[in-house]
Design brief:
Blueprint: E1 13-18, E2 23-28, H1 53-63, H2 68-85, H3 92-110, H4 116-133, E3 144-147, E4 150-156, E5 162-164, H5 166-182, H6 189-201, E6 204-206, E7 209-211, H7 228-245, H8 248-256, E8 270-272, E9 277-279, E10 289-290, H9 291-308, H10 311-327, E11 338-341, E12 345-346, H11 349-366, H12 369-384
Parallel strand pairs: 1-3
Antiparallel strand pairs: 1-2, 3-4, 4-5, 6-7, 8-9, 10-11, 11-12
Helix pairs in contact: 1-2, 2-3, 2-4, 3-4, 5-6, 5-7, 6-7, 7-8, 7-9, 9-10, 9-11, 11-12
Length: 405
């Protein structure tokens, strides 16, 4: 099966690797680069009268949903982050980044959303931000970040620190799997296994199943929100890993992520159409129909259903496939592609190349004439513009210390 890279027209991206006392930039050939420019959004409001972070932790301990050891660990992470935010000798811009992440955590708690199932990803995010910003890094908005002891992908979002990036992490896992599948002598088996483990530990609970949620405000949505594209890509990576390693628990986790595609927004990502269902890129934006996110969600469901034999997934794939075959021609302007409907914003060259690749993937998998025909048309449009975009330059981060606020 072809590798699904999202969102990218080339393989690889530059990433900051954080060590114990240093940060270095390197090229990661397995990491799908990000082409989306996310602008800062207003910080989430902290609901008056809602439980504090400490109160949510105490309640979870009293209910037995977290162990005493977990309570001690999360409390320690919280205290260390508070101390890092106030640390003398660290630039205020860096400390402000930690403060924003603390505010997100406080808002999630005050809104009643800080249950035990969401504590692991949220407190991991808080710990990573405290470790990162006290080193006063030079970091661009949108820069990817990993840590030496954990291959999980995080990303810098202006004003919201570094956040776990489920789509980038799952895409990297697919890249590592492809390398192992096609070039065994170059297989980084331990790295792939560690990344799949990280996907397991950063999943939370949503729609009655597992979900890889996002924890920063964006486009009118406030955390926690989910993405059909990221969810399906994670299911794809986990099901491939289950077969590659012979570990059923990865397939079990992928199966537990299926409910998100059965629920309507804002909890789930399934939107009814005249023919089948459209799977949303953003759970908080039911009217925004982004073609590349929908096609990758359909592809991820196809691959998971094929590898697992899950009949529920097969039915969801067929429903999405019917809708995608009907919708895809509407994104063709005759000269280029629309990024999303109904607003009819034209794709950037990166997104046009991306959606062309996704159409080719579905053409290969299904043989459907509509995917194959539109893929050829989009390729012609791209060639008239001089071909796919060039990879990013190898220049080091040029932004100020601690990134952009």
């Amino acid at each position: 099966m072809a590798l699904i890279l999202a969102p990218a027209a080339w393989a690889g991206d530059r990433v900051l690797v954080v060590g114990e006392d240093s940060i270095r930039e390197r090229w990661d050939p397995m990491l799908p680069p990000d082409v989306e420019r996310i602008s800062p959004a207003p910080p989430p409001a902290v609901a008056a009268g809602g439980p504090s972070v400490k109160q949510s932790l105490a309640r979870a301990l009293a209910q037995g949903s977290i162990s005493r050891r977990q309570h001690v660990l999360y409390t320690l992470i919280y205290k260390e982050a508070l101390a890092a935010r106030s640390r003398r000798g660290v630039a205020r811009r860096c400390r402000n980044q930690i403060g924003r992440v603390l505010r997100i955590l406080a808002a999630v708690s005050a809104n009643g959303d800080l249950g035990a199932a969401r504590m692991r990803p949220l407190f991991l995010t808080l710990r990573r931000n405290a470790e990162f910003w006290v080193q006063e890094p030079r970091v661009r908005s949108g820069q990817r970040v990993t840590f030496e002891r954990d291959p999980l992908v995080l990303q810098h979002y202006a004003g919201y620190g570094i956040q776990i990036q489920p789509l980038g992490s799952a895409g990297k896992a697919n890249g590592l799997w492809k390398q192992c599948d096609e070039t065994p002598r170059l297989c980084r088996e331990a790295r792939l296994h560690a990344l799949l483990e990280s996907l397991l530990t950063t999943a939370s609970q949503r729609a009655g199943g597992k979900a890889w949620e996002y924890w920063f405000p964006f486009g009118g949505g406030y955390p926690p929100w989910a993405s059909g594209m990221a969810q399906a890509t994670a299911m794809q990576a986990l099901s491939r890993g289950a077969i590659f390693f012979g570990e059923p628990r990865f397939m079990i986790a992928a199966r537990a992520a299926l409910p998100l595609f059965r629920e309507p927004p804002p909890v789930g990502v399934r939107a009814r159409t005249k023919r089948g269902h459209h799977f949303l890129l953003y759970s908080f934006a039911p009217r925004l129909r982004v073609l590349n996110g929908f096609l990758q969600a359909v592809t991820g469901l196809h691959d998971y259903a094929k590898l697992s034999g899950d009949r529920r997934a097969r039915r969801l794939f067929r429903s999405g496939d019917r809708a995608a075959r009907r919708e895809t021609p509407r994104y063709d302007t005759g000269k280029w592609s629309y990024y999303a409907l109904p607003n009819k914003n034209r794709s950037t060259i990166e997104y046009h190349a991306l959606v062309t690749g996704f159409l080719e993937n579905l053409c290969d998998r299904t043989g459907a004439r509509v995917y194959c025909r539109i893929a050829k048309r989009f390729t012609r449009y791209l060639n008239r513009r001089g071909g796919p975009p060039s990879p990013p330059s190898g220049e080091p981060p040029s932004g100020p210390r601690c990134g952009y606020l």
